[in-house]
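Troubleshooting: if your tokenizer reports a length mismatch, compare your output against this known-good record of 115 residues.
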Amino acid sequence: MSKAGLKAAGSLAGNGLLLLLAVLVAASPDARGDEAQDLKASIVVSCIYQVGEFGSGLVDICVKENLAAAEALAGYPKSASQVVDDCTDRLQGDGWARIKMCVDQALQGNKSGKE
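Known-good structure output:
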């Protein structure tokens, strides 16, 4: 097998391990029904697929940014719910950090338009 092939196989094995860990965390009896745990597991899986080929360091950054964004969005006022829904619908596969950026830009635009 070529060096590139070995590197790809090693990368897939590492990603597979992270994916297995995410699945085990999501499937544990204590985590069932726990929305926060489900959200974290989905973010981990999403980050593995998005940036896993670049290493676990980048996956960790992706997970931390997306968890922080999701938590921030959960604390937004009800008046922003339509904007949050619109951005979530449009950017669903892009991650919570991108959704939060969309919401923040839209809300900033609304403030600017009212002044």
